[in-house]
Fold these 3 entries.
Entry 1:
Amino acid sequence: MGILDGDDVATVDAASVQRLVGHARKAGIARMPAAALDSLEPPTQAELASLLTLLIAALERSPVPTHEWPSLSRVFEPDQLAGLLGVSLSSLRRYQSGARHTPDEVAERLHFLALVMADLSGAYNDIGIRRWFERPRTLLGGRRPADLLAGYWDPEGPGPQEVRQLAQSLVAVSAT
């Protein structure tokens, strides 16, 4: 989602969770987990795991276009990103630059793509992520993920949910 500013988290300890929660707090997300973490001294591993679960849930529900535009723009070419979002290239540029407010429905699609990209980043580099959207996938009935994310799609719709599930399945594979 572009919220971590390049911070890598190698271990789950109080300091790294504090950093993650701090970044989310700056973006206006996860105020309750942040307050909970502030009240724990020192937090146990179980408390840290619980806070991370709350943080992940809050991040998944919270589009943050100001962070997500730069993050996705580093991976996708403008024409591919515009196509995946169902917006014109000129609108994409205005939203990215902040010259125009990102409409809620575009912010939701942008957020969805940021989540899918995060899932894919465990298995692919930037080139692989771009190609993943363009290649037919057996588990999508031979369709390309881009085909299921065409036009004015709803992230909660069946096609996009199939795309997300496929991307999430790669996380489980790369973690084993």
Entry 2:
Amino acid sequence: MTAGAKKKICVMVVDDHFVVRMGLSGSINVEADMAVTTEASTGEQAVAAYRQHRPDIVLMDLKLPGISGVEATKAICTEFPGAAVIMLSTHDGEEDIYRSLQAGARTYLLKTAARNELIDTIRAVHAGQRAISPAVGARLAERMMHPDLTAREIDVLRLIVKGRSNKEIAADLFIAEVTVKLHVGHILTKLSVNDRTQAATTALQRGLIHLE
């Protein structure tokens, strides 16, 4: 590097789809002040690659085989508190955004974002900013108004989404059917819905549950 030259922003791209990684790398590498120096296709690879290369910015896909993007982000940010992770996703559910930021991501960006928004976000996060878009900020604010579901309620809700009856849920979770009924009642109240169908729809829309 010549005297006075600025160091490029080193970016790691994490996505399980080769074509997506190529597209992101192509968009980034044409910029004079940044370069993709590392790639990973799973969450486990991302954690290992971060330890080895310490990139300035991580573009992390939300849904990955093995550990999720949220889990990989949490692992990286726990071990390296200064890590700068930008979560990328096709999902705009408020729960996905909330979990990502709770895990340590600096911001959340949809894969449908324009190229200039991606580049501007990388620069902003590298400069120490959160760079939360108005749309993502609105979704996050909406999430903060809702009460949290317990881990057991999430378990029950996941089975409701799969169409299980109370009796089937009780058998799957090894709990009494009356206990399942109590959990379902709490879920309906917390989600502000009237029935199981609405609960399932809301769970998918908000990103509380993802279909496998």
Entry 3:
Amino acid sequence: MSDERSPTTPVAPVPSPERARVLDYLRTRAATLGPSGVRARVRAAAEELEAQLAPLDEPAARACPSGGDWSIAQVVDHLAQTQIRVVDELRHLLAGRRPPPPPVYEGLISGAGTWAPWEELVDGLRSANAELDAVLAQAGAGAASTSTGAVRARTILVANRQEPDGAVRPETFVAELDWKEYALVQRLHLLDHRNQVRGLRAALAGDVGRR
């Protein structure tokens, strides 16, 4: 009898309810919203995020009150790097083309978040947000492909998964999304980081108060 062991195939985790809820939200909202409605929601999320950034100065943007977490400057850099890739993928989708690989991976960031002037980082994010809004405006003006729903982008999503031990851990998964679903992902992404910036600002205020 042979003593050799066959290589085991990794078992994929069972999809979580949180993953199902994210996908259900995207599909339901995309089905009920027209292009102008999608644009309005993405635009509002971008404005809410930018409002959180407006009062900050260079020292506050560079501080890391939560230890190993990103600074606000790095969050802004991440969003700008992501948004400009998103704009390119949306242009493909609206033209009826599947975006070429690689997809927009989670956690994109450049070295600029640690050295570029704060004002420059914020201007870069505003510019990227404006480009995204302009592309969505074209969709609202009738430039969206008539094959909406047929052409999809391979999209990397993250959901906060509740584990049996009570811990909450990120679950990364892949979804195939049409242009409206894809655009609504960007709304959720902006809102998630709006909340992150809000939390970092609160932590900074607490640090100042304890001095």
